Amino acid sequence: MLRSEFTQLLENLQADLAEMGRLVDQTTRQALQALQNRDADLARQVIDNDDVIDNLQNTLEEECVSLLATQQPIATDLRTVMSVVHLGVELERMGDYAEGIAKICLRTYEEPLLKPLIDIPRMADLALKDA
């Protein structure tokens, strides 16, 4: 394989990882919105999106393994591939957390709140402000 093809494969991996990050960000925001607004339909959508995130992570991992096996990258390229693998795992875990929030929302959306949701949206705003 030519170096230009290899470089294109690395760029594709990075683009797929960025797309996964965008989806995880969107899903996390939706999970918090579903919890705050007690929106069961949005919570179900978040749960469905977790399968998409899981599939993206599996695809990324397969592409990385294939690249490692066929190209045997060294130095910076190897670090890039390994970073994609690790970041994919972490993003998938974050998607699982969003799914967990959505499941809590579904279990509790018909129940009255013990107290108003003030701190959770404030923490979300602080955490997602720089994202």
TrEMBL record:
Q: Which residues form the signal peptide?
A: none
Lineage of the organism: Eukaryota, Metazoa, Porifera, Demospongiae, Heteroscleromorpha
Q: Which Pfam families match?
A: PhoU
What Gene3D superfamilies has UniProt attached to this entry? Phosphate transport system protein phou homolog 2, domain 2
User: What is a biological process (GO) this protein takes part in?
Assistant: intracellular phosphate ion homeostasis
User: Where would I find the PhoU domain in this sequence?
Assistant: 17-104
This chain belongs to the protein called Phosphate-specific transport system accessory protein PhoU
Q: What sections of the protein cross the membrane?
A: none
